[in-house]
Amino acid sequence: MSVVTTESDQLIQFLKNVKLFTDLSTESLVRLGTCLKVAEFPPNEVIVREGAPGVSMYIIKSGLVEVRKKDPVTGIDFLVAQLGDGTPIGEMALLTGKPRTATVSTVQPTAVYTLTRADFRNLLTQHPEISLGLARILAERLEDTTKRSEEHTSELQSRFGISYAVFCLKK
If we measure between CA atoms, which residue out of 29, 5, 4 comes closest to residue 18? Predict the structure, then answer.
């Protein structure tokens, strides 16, 4: 006897593996699934631009994206992270109401689930347990950013000497 899974079942299983939603019940995941829309992007397409308003968040369904941020001192665009399947993008701008803090662009053909600001806020109100998922993601991103910042500073020191790094820190 074979097991038949529906598209809805596959979506629920996918969402269970997204860190942001791991603490949600199956019923809550079903409700979340009804809010999601799929968008597809070719390679080298910008999904989120640094400085733009945050009107939606995304969850990578399939594909690979790069997160890049411009260094305010040097103007150099540097790689912050590469993200793949199941990773949320842009949720922080929905929480803070501030502009996007980085540019996210596709490396290969990428499909994402889109969740609007209104649906995201309703979801947070109805399911405060999502806050635990957000806290996990924030902690991981802070750790990654700190590590990359140290690597970036090290690279600048080796390229331009210690005096440049000290100059940047004094600003």
Answer: 29
Whole-structure pTM value: 0.75
- The strand pairing partners of 40, in sequence order, are 111
Q: Distance between CA atoms of 25 and 110, rounded to whole angstroms?
A: 27
Which DSSP category does 106 fall into?
E
99 neighbors 51 (Cβ within 8 angstroms) = yes
- What is the C-alpha to C-alpha distance for residues 92 and 57, in angstroms, rounded to an integer? 8
Distant-in-sequence, close-in-space partners of 154: CB < 8 Å, separation ≥ 6: none
In tens, the pLDDT along 86-139 reads: 999 988 887 788 899 899 999 999 999 999 988 888 887 887 777 777 777 778
Please measure the distance between the N-terminal and C-terminal CA atoms of the chain and give it in whole angstroms. Answer: 68
Looking at the chain, how many residues does it have? 171
Cα-Cα-Cα-Cα dihedral sign, residues 154, 156, 157, 159: positive
Amino acid at 122: N
Placement of tokens 């799929």 in the chain: 38
Alpha helices in the chain (DSSP H): 7-16, 26-35, 91-96, 117-126, 130-160, 162-170
